[in-house]
# Entry
Amino acid sequence: MSDTRYTAGGAAALAPREYHLAEEPHPENGTALGFWLYLMSDCLIFAALFATYGVLGRNYAAGPTGAQLFDLPLVAMNTAFLLLSSITFGFAMLQKQQGKLGGTQLWLAITGLFGLCFLGLELYEFSHLLHEGAGPQRSAFLSSFFTLVGTHGLHVSFGLIWLVTLMIQINKHGLTHENNRRLMCLSMFWHFLDVVWIGVFTFVYLMGVL
# Structure
């Protein structure tokens, strides 16, 4: 930034003036704290959805039950995809700590592929249920099921969009301080989705079949 000064003869002269911030505008650990608060709010959302399913999960309205609908081997395979994506994300973070750009990008890409496989199988399950006439309007059980599992699937979709965007930023700017901070937030988000899915797999699918 510069300002205009006048000399003794009245002529205007531009004199450069530099301004410096008195302190760093981004507080230390501010992003991590804010993101933890967001995750806690997401916990409340999923807690409400789990509670709703707990109340409505046995109201079949003379329709099909979970034992009749759920394909447990398919869901177990889907669970494996998501858990493996969490492991590969951990490998990406290890590569990031070592400053290896190529390795970080490789493991992030593998994580994204596992996430896409998870979403693909989940969409296949939903389409199969709809084809069988077991849509969310069929019973309170199916309404709460589609809401809970679908909300988790939307979170995974947003996580994949975030992952691709971050990979583009890393490819353009490298492993900068800002990108490292974003990677850490995405890592917390991704592992959070894994924990929620373990609850879904246990509470919805296993208990529904058994």
